[in-house]
Amino acid sequence: MRAGPDARASGDRHPANLLRHGGATLGERVADRVTASFGSWAFILAQSAAIVVWIAANVVGVLRAWDPYPFILLNLLFSTQAAYAAPLILLSQNRQAERDRVKAEHDYAVNQLALQFLLAWHDDTHPPGCTCVADLGPEAERLLAVTHLPALVTTPPP
Ligand SMILES: [Zn+2]
C-alpha cells in the first residue's frame, strides 16, 4: 500500500481511503475522474445533446455539413472514445478492487481485535472451564474454529 505525504492532511484515516487519496498517481487520479464522469447522468445527457446537435447541424447543412449522413466522423469519434474508455474503466476497476481488498483486510483485523478483547473479558468474568461459548452451538464453534481460537469451545475435562 502506498500512502503519500498528503494522505493524513486530507483527513482520511481508513486504510482504503488512504490508498485512494494518498498514494494515487496522476494517471490513476485521471482514470478515477474520467470513469466517474462516464458513469453519470450528466455525461449521458450532455453526450446525447451533443449527438442531436451534431446530426441536426449536418442534416440542416450548417458549416457546409462537415459530416454528412451517415456521419462517419461522428462514428470515428465514438470509436476513439470507446477505445480509451475501456482501458480507463479497467484501470479504475483495478484500483477499486485493491481498495476493497484493503478494506476487507482492515475489517478482519478490527474484528480480530474485538474478539481478542471479548476473549480477555470472558476469561476475567467467567469461571475457569466455563462452557457458555460451547453451549452456543455448532455455528459459534465453526466461527471460532476458522478464527483459530478453538480454545473456548473445547469441553473442559470432568
Ligand atoms: Zn463463559
Number of helices: 5
For the biggest sheet, the summary is: none
Oligomer: single chain
Radius of gyration using CA atoms only: 28 Å
Q: Specify the helix fraction band.
A: 55-70%
When the domains are counted, the total is 2
Number of strands: 0
Shape: rod-shaped
In angstroms, what separates the terminal alpha carbons?
Answer: 50 Å
Q: Pairing-aware structural class of the strands and helices? A: mainly alpha
Strand content: under 5%
Q: Whole-number average pLDDT? A: 84
In N-to-C order, the SSE pattern is HHHHH
Low-confidence runs of at least 5 consecutive residues: 1-5
Bound molecules: zinc ion
Transmembrane segments: 38-57, 69-91
Keywords: Membrane, Transmembrane, Transmembrane helix
InterPro entries: DUF1003
Protein name: DUF1003 domain-containing protein
Q: How would you sum up this structure, described in words?
A:
- With 158 residues, the protein is an all-alpha fold.
- It is built from 5 helices and no strands.
- The chain has helices at 15-22, 26-38, 41-60, 72-125, 138-146.
Features:
158 residues, mainly alpha, rod-shaped, disordered N terminus
List the helices and strands and how they pair.
Blueprint: H1 15-22, H2 26-38, H3 41-60, H4 72-125, H5 138-146
Helix pairs in contact: 1-4, 2-4
The structure holds zinc ion.
